[in-house]
Amino acid sequence: MKQVYFTVGPSQLYPTVGKHVRRALVEQIPSISHRSQQFKEIYANTVNMLRLLLAIPETHQVFFLSSANEAWERILQNCVETSSFHLVNGAFSRKFYEFGLALGKQSSKYEVPNSSGFSIASIEIPEKTELICTTHNETSTGVMTDMRTIVGLKKMHPDILLTVDVVSSVPYVRVDFSVIDIAFFSVQKGFGLPAGLGVLVANQKAIAKSIKMAKKGISVGSYHTFANLEKYGLKNQTSETPNVLAIYLLGLVCQDMLDYGIDRIRQESEYKAALLYDYFGNHRDFKVAVRTPDWRSVTTVAVNTPKGSEMVIKRLKKAGFVVGAGYGELKLSQVRLANFPAHSINQVKRLLSAFAE
Ligand SMILES: *Cc1c(COP(=O)(O)O)cnc(C)c1O
User: Fold this and answer.
1) Which of 69, 89, 169, 175 to mutate for ligand 1's pocket (most ligand atoms within 8 Å of CB)?
2) What is the per-residue pLDDT across 53-75, written as a single tens digit (0 to 9) for each?
3) How distant, in Å, are the alpha carbons of 97, 130, 132, 178 from that of 158?
4) Is this structure's pTM higher than 0.90?
């Protein structure tokens, strides 16, 4: 039986992906040179579509990486000489912090318990911080930080660079690029595409910081220094042989989402989230894992399963739905449900009926 993937990534493919993959094969996209005019046009189109969909202004450049993991590393390498500061409330934001330590930076963190959000008043930024690292949607626990908190943090510290991980909340989230310096994501979550492509959006301040560090003789990496990304990006190219197929597909899926309407996607995301939270909020056995309603993620719904997650996952699989287990130590006591644009209202309703049986 064909399954509907409600896993948080990789996840259900956006409905038009199959059609685009078939067309890509007919057009022999995977064989074209990454130095060809045809590729440059694909690159330019995808960047343009991302700009339209996510309202990315000309102040920011759009670069292609291999994953969000790579984005963590590149951002730290290119923007932090010594000190990064991280908001940590789960496994993904913690990993970003640990990448800083692994790269030999003096990374510090403000940590709250998993399943908790942040209140801006209690966050103190250490003095020498060069980069504030935030995670909009902590996919491991289903906590979404209000974008106003992240924007507010930057406004309180306008001279410090700020980056936001929006991996599991794009395209639902609205990133205020008039304030945010760097945002990044990969495409196997909200865009409903195969994994293997990361997108980094950075402004001139971030690029300038990298160039300044390199001039001082500090290593900012090799092929994906911000200067190199910019140099090739201006030619609609990448320095390495990139995932051409993925860049091609991303442009087409962005176009489809624009045609469908990004506001409609956002409204439907909230509607589906309300269906999910209403159902689990009133359930006899299952419980919404994030207690505080303001912290509940629209795109990642974590549900406690007091009688264990394994049976629930197995039972749903039989009904045609793949749902994710909890992350790490929550594996056996929680399930996580993705709520991405690829998931229709009807599929969510059918999923809930399957839960009810
Ligand atoms: C999935 C995820 C990542 C990692 O993405 P990769 O593409 O596997 O590198 C990073 N941050 C968040 C919030 C995620 O959900």
Assistant:
1) 69
2) 999 999 999 999 999 999 999 99
3) 21, 11, 11, 12
4) yes
